[in-house]
Amino acid sequence: MKKPILGKQTFLPDNTERVLSFEKFVKEVYDKNKDEKPLYTGRYFVIFRDGISGSPRAMSFFKSECGLSVANTREFVSTPIDETQIGDADALIYEDLGIALVGGNEEQIRILENAGAGYIIEPEKIVYVPDEMPAVLNVPSTWGIDATQAMVSRYTGQGIKIAVLDTGFDATHPDFASRNVVTNSFVPDETAEDMHGHGTHCIGSAAGNLDVNGMRYGVATNASIYAGKVLSNEGSGAQAWILNGITWAADNGCQVISMSLGSRVFPGQSYDVAYERAAQYANSKGAVVIAAAGNESRRSQNQFSPVGSPADCPSILAVAAVDSNLNVAEFSNRGINPGGEVDIAGPGVEIYSSWPMPMQYRTISGTSMATPHVAGLTALLWEKYPNGTPHQIMSELRKLAKRLPVSNMDVGVGLSQAPVEQIV
């Protein structure tokens, strides 16, 4: 696995076969097809039907029958998974998830497809920052902190680790100078520094505190921050990078994993098993996993898109966006596909938060902005119930939500709220 695309032949929309680096592939195809971003990297996930117990048999089969050279995530015992350190391997087995990432040639993939009922084969998705919805007015407004009651909650996320998997983090941002921030990049050949902006904005909403004028814009103001860079400076990434980030966050004891990212899902399409395996692994390690429902809808035109991937997974909370009047955001996706429901809503329109220097702050909209609000509120609940389980925390999150007079297809149980009680 020398590079993210593994030298695999990739099929462009005009059916021309070419071999491209991942980022060049995304840029060239996206530039030609502005309205249709490419969906797949050209690699495949092989899902072992019998879970992690199938890993040894799969490794033997990959080597003997497919002629694949194989690496294993167990090689990264004390360090995060790094694709650049796998050498020339054609396949990477995720030992703890019961899946493998394969970048072999078409003949090798056909052998896998014909191997029988032991495997499910899915193409690896390209993941994107959801399309940004610029605010009408770029003015400081932290209405979401008030609407969720975070401002009057006694909890601050103290002692809780929040992982934000996104485009990285601006470590020079003065608002975070005294905070405990751990960073790691899963994007080959890029540091964890946020040269895009989206990741720093999401981290600010989830766990920031005050701006230079003393205005609070973050929910969990004392939480520890784990910034995993899983999307490039161009705002796109390979699905495996997100899986690497999820397992890293879970293995580091993060109780909340926030993902404002996704791939488009079409009506009738099922959730991605590889993501679901990763989410289940994170749950087993004590983490609640949260993701953006997506921004593809255009409600005023009666266009509704299904909840995106990975938010459509059963073990991941899907977050919709509402505005300051608690109306569903124009762009927010709907729970259309069976199993791909919206779980809860958060503030997602005209959200003011941190941005890489020198801009320092920016106001934007999206389910990307709603998701870190819910992540921060989840951290407050973890602080209140330190001995809880992910299931109990998610149940409490739903119980506290403010019911809204709209369909649960659009907002789930309602607007997420902070735990509020008088200090005794």
TrEMBL record:
It comes from the Bacteria. CDD domains: Peptidases_S8_12. The lineage of its organism: Bacteria, Pseudomonadati, Bacteroidota, Cytophagia, Cytophagales. InterPro entries: Peptidase_S8/S53_dom, Peptidase_S8/S53_dom_sf, Peptidase_S8/S53_subtilisin, Peptidase_S8_Asp-AS, Peptidase_S8_Ser-AS, Peptidase_S8_subtilisin-rel. Gene3D superfamilies: Peptidase S8/S53 domain. PROSITE patterns: SUBTILASE, SUBTILASE_ASP, SUBTILASE_SER. This is Peptidase S8/S53 domain-containing protein. The active site is at D166 (charge relay system), H198 (charge relay system), S368 (charge relay system). Residues 157-402 form the Peptidase S8/S53 domain. Belongs to the peptidase S8 family. Keywords: Hydrolase, Protease, Serine protease.
